[in-house]
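Backbone geometry:

***
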Amino acid sequence: MKNPHHSYSILIVDDNLTNIKLLLDILNQSGFRVSIAKSGENALVKLQENLPDLILLDVMMPGIDGFETCRQLKENPKTKDIPVIFMTALSELGNKVKGLQLGGVDYITKPIEPEEVLARIHVHLQLRKMQLQLIQTEKMSSLGQLVGGVAHEINNPINFIYGNIFHAQKYVQDLLKTIELYEQYLPSDIPELKTWSEEIDFDFLKDDLPQLLSSMEIGANRIRDLVRSLRVFSRLDEAQLKEIDLKEGIESTLMLLSHRLKPTSHRPEIEIIQDYDKLPLIECYASEINQVFIHVFNNAIDAIDSKALMLGNHSKTLNVFVPQIRIKIESTTEQDGLKISIADNGIGMSAEVQRRSFDQFFTTKPVGQGTGLGLAITYAIIVDKHGGTLTCNSEVGQGSEFKITLPFSQEKRLN
């Protein structure tokens, strides 16, 4: 059964009260969330606040008609991708063509037939969902190939560097020992040697060179860890179902996001608290589960940054704010899967935002900074693809917690 918090929302734009009442009855009984605008102008205002999944738009209205309303919707980057179904008694081919050319996806002819309305809405919502999945699949496939390719190209040279640092350290130690012996047996008052030693600050060089090589070793180790994380995250060789260690995917994702966890000008470093030990293997699509982790962690970091910026005006409060992300994993009560909790102490969400958090294309971020795809894709991967569950609990000012359950075996899900 579809999660009620993930039900689709529809905006009815019509000035006829009889049509509005009929559509409200049809859509409410089918579980849709419905809002109403009685004119094109009113619809454009409403859409600045909340974006529906689909719009039912009457053609003949006072003020700006349906055609003009649709034209303005398609010119706005925020609303241009919302499917628009025209409702009209106009049956002339020219009117239908005009509506389709303006960006409408379909027509419903008045008088309204409930079965036809629901059938057309269902078709276009499914098409929109498929479009979303295709966009994300292509996006993640390209990203995975890029990440995997970069990791492969970096792997060989970094292994070469790492493998030779040990020998370089040994050679430097031998050279410094040789110089020390020369210093013991050569006269100490050779002018040219004395001048050169002072010019290169030889005493400092002897102390700093081993430390320099040690820093290079630490850096090479860091790059090796990042390359390993990139390869684990992309998992190009694991596109099919496979048993994996979930902890490995979480660690690789956190490694890739480590730059976002570091302290910034408006907050200290984000603390990661992990509550899990050795985990049993779980059967899943590894690369897609890693997408889930990166979406949820990115949202947690964004929420923490928003809270820190809000507290920035109250320096005393900010000084006691310790940003945290808590990760807890344990077996389900039935012992047939894993429960994953990812909680942050960020800015939190209102009841309305929380209710719509998994809706396609819903975002609270400014245009250009968020597509509203991340959590919708996360929901599709967990619920539709893996047969798990995904819920969110949040309180404004206190933080959010995402709870995920995944079955150990996909065979159990299908039976």
In short: The chain has 14 helices and twelve strands. Residues 8 and 295 are 21 Å apart (CA to CA). Residues 1-6, 366-372 have pLDDT under 50 and may be disordered.
